[in-house]
Amino acid sequence: MTVHVTRDGGAVDEFARFADRYIKHTDGSLEIVRSGSAQTNKYGAGSWVDVTGDEKQPRHVRFREWFARLVTRVGGSEKR
């Protein structure tokens, strides 16, 4: 999906490859990741205002979701 980054001055950068994703870091910076490419585009904290498109989910979030579902299933079958 296309990722649009609105910069501080009002200019909009567009990343229109198929698997472009963005990552918002805890320090306020933004990183655009392109699938199949080692190069990333980075925006420092305060240099961007808004971003739209697909956000890349960290792997540990998926693991936590999987583990929570597993515990729920096991816990549900033990109550019988």
Q: Can you offer a commentary on this structure?
A:
The protein is of the alpha+beta class and 80 residues long. It has one domain. The chain is built from one helix and six strands. It has a three-stranded antiparallel β-sheet, with no helix packed on it. The model has no long low-confidence stretch (mean pLDDT 83).
In short:
It contains 1 helix and 6 strands, in the order ββββββα. The chain is an alpha+beta fold.
Layout of helices and strands, plus pairs?
Blueprint (H helix, E strand, L loop, with lengths): L2 E5 L4 E4 L5 E4 L5 E4 L6 E4 L4 E5 L6 H20 L2
Antiparallel strand pairs: 1-2, 1-6, 3-4, 4-5
Q: How many domains is the backbone divided into?
A: 1
Element order, helices and strands?
Answer: EEEEEEH
Tell me the helix content: 25-40%
Q: Report low-confidence residues grouped into runs of 5 or more.
A: none
Features:
single chain; 80 residues; alpha+beta; three-stranded antiparallel beta sheet; 25% helix
